């Protein structure tokens, strides 16, 4: 007899060119990490300490479909570079952070913007606008050995063939290694953690029937149909 009274599947991701899967532990999302996006959201783009919120690991979805959620009239796209960790710890040094990276993927932080805005105005947490079923479409995870150097890579998103978001990874206010080091000061990082590193300017609404294509450098594209 099992020691558990119920069975809950372990959320995991497909890995490019690998039969094994990447088990998920936590999902950290970095906010306002591109100056122009901070400006378009009405905030100061200065390099203030990063902040983060979390999505549930089972919010991640690799089906290539995004089902419009209920209780929202303004669902918006945010394209992001996603970092997967193979190890972690506390108080990781910036110069050591790369040693903990398993790989990278493209992701979308789909946001119920009207609900997020409402929560902001009330001084409440954002989860109702950020963490819901299918709210994080994600592409194939590529190991760090299978990835090109991403330090100076273009990141962009098209909707129905029209360019919506465009930027460069080097425009992040806090780079990947700095983010890892910063998070490790406040929480125990570990294998299975994902970090969504923020989005460039150009976020906007989606509707059923839209076709989204996200790309970064040499990573596998992420194609998502909105239904």
From TrEMBL:
GO MF entry, a single one: acetylpyruvate hydrolase activity
Keyword Metal-binding: yes
Domain (Fumarylacetoacetase-like C-terminal): residue spans on this chain: 27-226
Keywords attached to this entry: Hydrolase, Metal-binding
InterPro entries: Fumarylacetoacetase-like_C (IPR011234), Fumarylacetoacetase_C_sf (IPR036663)
Designated name of the protein: FAA hydrolase family protein
Species the sequence originates in: Alginatibacterium sediminis
Phylogenetic placement of the source organism: Bacteria, Pseudomonadati, Pseudomonadota, Gammaproteobacteria, Alteromonadales
């Amino acid at each position: 007899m099992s020691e558990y009274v119920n069975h809950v599947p372990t959320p995991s991701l497909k890995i490019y060119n690998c039969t094994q899967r990447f088990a998920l532990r936590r999902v950290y999302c970095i906010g306002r990490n591109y100056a122009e996006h901070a400006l378009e959201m009405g905030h100061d783009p200065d390099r203030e300490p990063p902040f983060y919120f979390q999505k549930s690991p089972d919010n991640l979805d690799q089906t290539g479909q995004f089902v419009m959620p209920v209780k929202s009239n303004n669902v918006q796209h945010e394209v992001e570079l996603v970092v997967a960790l193979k190890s972690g710890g506390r108080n990781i040094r910036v110069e050591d952070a790369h040693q903990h990276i398993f790989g990278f993927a493209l992701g979308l932080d789909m946001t119920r913007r009207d609900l997020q805005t409402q929560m902001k105005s009330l001084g409440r947490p954002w989860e109702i606008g950020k963490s819901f079923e299918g709210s994080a479409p994600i592409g194939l995870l590529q190991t760090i050995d299978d990835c090109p150097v991403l330090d100076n890579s273009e990141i962009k998103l098209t909707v129905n063939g029209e360019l919506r978001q465009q930027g460069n990874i080097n425009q992040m206010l806090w780079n990947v290694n700095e983010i890892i080091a910063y998070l490790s000061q406040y929480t125990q990082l570990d294998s299975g953690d994902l970090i969504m590193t923020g989005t460039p300017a150009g976020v906007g609404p989606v509707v059923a029937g839209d076709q989204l294509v996200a790309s970064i450098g040499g990573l596998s594209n992420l194609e998502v149909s909105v239904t």
